[in-house]
Each structure stands twice: as structure tokens, then as C-alpha cells.
Specification:
This protein is mostly beta strands. It contains 1 helix and 8 strands.
Length: 146
């Protein structure tokens, strides 16, 4: 028979992790306010640029605004609800509608003049090249001759 030592903090930590996971995966962000939808993002950084992908199913490109202020990228927009017809009975209504906004800080300044935004199959892809001063530079070492 194998005895396991009881650790009261093991369950507390797992409960905290479960609550964090629940709030992170929630469709409505707790700090976004009522009616604000979550906007899932992927942000990848290389030496040359940032690539940001945002899932925007059912959103028209004209309904999305992208802005960069300093090192802060903001994506905002709105999805419209279908008009309810008199006499229709809804059995399931899970698709969300309303405004959404997501801001994310970038670790380096970007060249907004060369930024590219593409929208394909409900995925917005932003390619944000880093500004020249943010790119890594190589410094050569010269040996002194004595």
C-alpha cells in the first residue's frame, strides 16, 4: 500500500491555475467591460519584424481599425447582430456580437510606413517591420597593434 502525504497547498495552487485559465479563455474579458468581446492574438517577434495574427471570423475588413501609438498596437472593431424577424423562434444563439478591442505592447518601435495588413479567411495578419534603430547591430572588434 502506497501512502501519499497530504499537502493542503497543492489543491489551492491548482484552483488558482484553474481560475486563471477560465478567465483567460473566457469570451468576455473581465477588464473589457460589458459587451466587449475578446480578440485572440498570436504575436511573434523576429530580428526583423513582428507578425501579429488575430482571429476575426465573420468580421469585414472595413469594420476593423488598426493603430500604432509608440510601442502600443491597438486593433478594434465591431460585429453586427443579425436582425431578429418577427415570428422566428431561436433555439440556440451562441454567436457573439458587439465591439472588440485589443491592445498589446511591442518590445521595439516599428516602421509604420512599411507595415502590411492582410485579411484571409477570417484571420488578420499584420507584418510590422522593426525600425532601423531597433534592429540588432554588429560591432566589429579591432585588435590594437602595440
Amino acid at each position: 500500500m502506497n501512502l501519499e502525504r497530504w499537502d493542503p497547498f497543492r489543491d489551492v495552487v491548482s484552483l488558482r491555475d484553474a481560475m486563471n485559465s477560465l478567465l483567460q479563455e473566457s469570451f468576455v474579458r473581465p477588464n473589457g467591460g460589458p459587451g466587449t468581446l475578446a480578440l485572440p492574438l498570436d504575436v511573434v517577434e523576429s530580428e526583423q519584424d513582428f507578425v501579429v495574427k488575430a482571429s476575426l471570423p465573420g468580421v469585414k475588413p472595413d469594420d476593423v481599425q488598426i493603430s500604432i501609438h509608440g510601442d502600443m498596437l491597438t486593433i478594434r472593431g465591431e460585429t453586427k447582430a443579425e436582425q431578429e424577424k418577427k415570428g422566428d423562434t431561436w433555439h440556440v444563439r451562441e454567436r457573439r456580437h458587439g465591439s472588440f478591442q485589443r491592445s498589446v505592447g511591442l518590445s521595439a518601435p516599428v516602421n509604420t510606413e512599411k507595415a502590411v495588413a492582410k485579411f484571409d479567411n477570417g484571420v488578420l495578419t499584420l507584418t510590422l517591420p522593426k525600425s532601423e534603430e531597433a534592429k540588432p547591430k554588429q560591432i566589429r572588434i579591432t585588435a590594437s597593434k602595440n
